[in-house]
Design brief:
mainly alpha; three-stranded antiparallel β-sheet; two-stranded antiparallel sheet; 9 strands; about 40% helix; about 5% strand; disordered N terminus
Length: about 500
């Protein structure tokens, strides 16, 4: 495949119209005559900040979670109907005009643009490698969600639509080749907020693990397949190779306090986070506060928006003493009466007083909910990111993309799918190593079904459930408040505005 240079000025401009991003792009074009004066590190910082599109409760996170069996957004009387925008995601009944699908598409392209912009202004070798990593990261999500990646050949007329269009199969090959090419130029260390070699190994493992899914594409329609997929032993061995690189680095251990991975000080607290989006407490506009606001009731401490819930089928997967299900960090004392994890039943204030809903009844969350007619207490709530009680709306919780536990479970899955076991690791051993740290009992055996269940227990509300369900061929099945759906919904539609301005784009089948 020819080397692709990702210059997305025209793409972004025509997709999002007159926005602040337009001003960024215009400034870039005008400033191209004086590249030496550009602060390349500031451009790289802006590319990292583009990762914050994953922090919010809508956009790409909504596509990853509301469409899965982990999350739903019930209508509660006059609250949260929003013209069905959450409901159609959960029931797999969205259209190409869906606001969050369009904004997710534009946000991912914006990330690609910002990463590419770094490469235009004489970056150092390390800066270029980090920018290309970020470009590959956003491109992976474009392939996963929309089945395409866009680019240009050198010297193209920027007033014309980009000529390069990569389908799913080509897109995943690009992601893999980019990451393999830059590996040695990435920093070997630097913290979880930096695109390090271990971050690249983890993304490569993720790419090889999903490669069979992206290759299972109808060449005539560019449509996705529901599987079952043919996972090659060679690809699975690549997954294992990259997982071993991370596990053998000696830089990560499983965190014995699970919720320290997501705490307001998780940059310092976590021993297992590999790649995160950095948020500085009180000094930026990151939206990780949405992780507790979107689910807590108005009268919880801290207060919430009384929105999203998890499905009881997920909650029921846990043993009672599993700390992933319920755990109370020390710093909750005096600030709230709730626990981290899943919230079911009567809720309490910090002083132990039972809380009430807005009608004066007990604030007691129930497992049952309806997408169309829930009350204030219907649905199990989730606290995956413990609240920042110091700066509630500008929290310090870094948003987590990759953790050691994911690496270990990817290796277990790759072995189950035909890869060669290494270093004495077995699927059941890897799973039980994690379960032991989470205060869950050992499993006697592990197969693909029970591995998917373990991934649900470990990674709920972290943005990977849609990806997992598609790979395990359960995404289109019926589950709580969702009927069986068709292969159309394995990919999201290309926004109409993008199609109308770029003749190289092809709408995904069914839209």
């Amino acid at each position: 495949m020819k080397k692709i240079y990702w210059i997305l000025v025209l793409i972004i401009t025509i997709f999002v119209g007159c926005t602040d991003l337009d001003e960024e792009l215009n400034d870039t074009v005008e400033g191209s005559v004086a590249k030496e004066s550009v602060d390349t590190q500031s451009l790289l910082t802006a590319a990292y900040q583009a990762l914050r599109i994953f922090d919010t409760q809508d956009n790409i996170f909504a596509l990853q979670e509301h469409t899965s069996d982990e999350m739903a957004g019930p209508t509660r009387g006059p609250d949260w109907d929003d013209a069905g925008i959450w409901r159609v995601l959960h029931t797999h009944n969205w259209t190409s005009s869906h606001t969050y699908i369009n904004s997710a598409y534009n946000g991912l392209l914006s990330g690609i643009f910002r990463a590419t912009q770094v490469l235009e202004f004489a970056p150092t070798t390390s800066q270029a490698a980090e920018a290309r990593y970020l470009r590959a990261f956003f491109s992976f999500h474009m392939v996963d969600n929309f089945g395409l990646v866009l680019g240009r050949e050198p010297g193209e007329d920027l007033t014309q639509p980009p000529s390069i269009y990569l389908n799913r199969a080509e897109g995943i090959e690009f992601v893999i080749s980019e990451l393999e090419e830059i590996m040695d130029d990435l920093p070997s260390s630097g913290g979880a907020a930096v695109a390090t070699q271990n971050a690249a190994h983890t993304l490569l493992a993720k790419a090889y693990l999903n490669k069979a899914v992206f290759l299972a594409t109808d060449e005539n329609t560019n449509g996705a397949s529901a599987g079952p997929f043919t996972f090659s032993a060679a690809d699975m061995n690549k997954v294992i190779e990259h997982c071993d690189a991370v596990m053998g680095s000696g830089m990560y251990t499983l965190e014995d306090k699970y919720f320290d991975n997501f705490s307001p000080t998780n940059t310092d607290d976590s021993s297992e986070n590999i790649f995160v989006s950095n948020n500085v407490q009180g000094s930026n506009t990151a939206n990780t506060h949405s992780r507790w606001h979107m689910t807590l009731h108005y009268n919880n401490q801290p207060d919430g928006w009384n929105g999203f819930v998890t499905l009881s089928d997920i909650y029921d997967l846990y043993e009672e003493d599993d700390m992933r299900r319920s755990y109370t960090p020390d710093y909750f004392e005096g600030n709230t009466g709730m626990n981290a994890g899943y919230l079911v039943g009567q809720q309490y204030a910090a002083d132990g007083t039972p809380l009430q809903d807005r009608q004066g009844g007990p604030l007691a969350f129930t497992p049952e909910f309806s997408l169309t007619s829930s009350n204030e207490v219907n649905g199990i709530r989730v606290i995956k990111y413990p609240p920042d009680f110091v700066t509630n709306n500008t929290p310090g919780n870094d948003y987590v993309f990759f953790r050691l536990a994911d690496v270990m479970l990817m290796k277990a899955e790759a072995i189950l799918r035909g890869g060669n076991a290494t270093n004495g690791d077995t699927p059941v051993g890897l799973v039980n190593d994690i379960r032991s740290e989470r205060n869950a009992t050992d499993l006697g055996s592990i197969d693909l079904t029970s591995l998917l269940e373990e991934r649900a227990r470990e990674f709920y509300w972290e943005g990977w459930r849609r990806n997992d369900q598609i790979r395990f061929s359960t995404y289109l099945d019926a589950f709580q408040e969702k009927p069986v759906s068709t292969e159309t919904y394995l990919l999201f539609p290309i926004p109409p505005a993008a199609l109308s301005t770029n003749p190289n784009l092809i709408q995904n089948p069914g839209y």
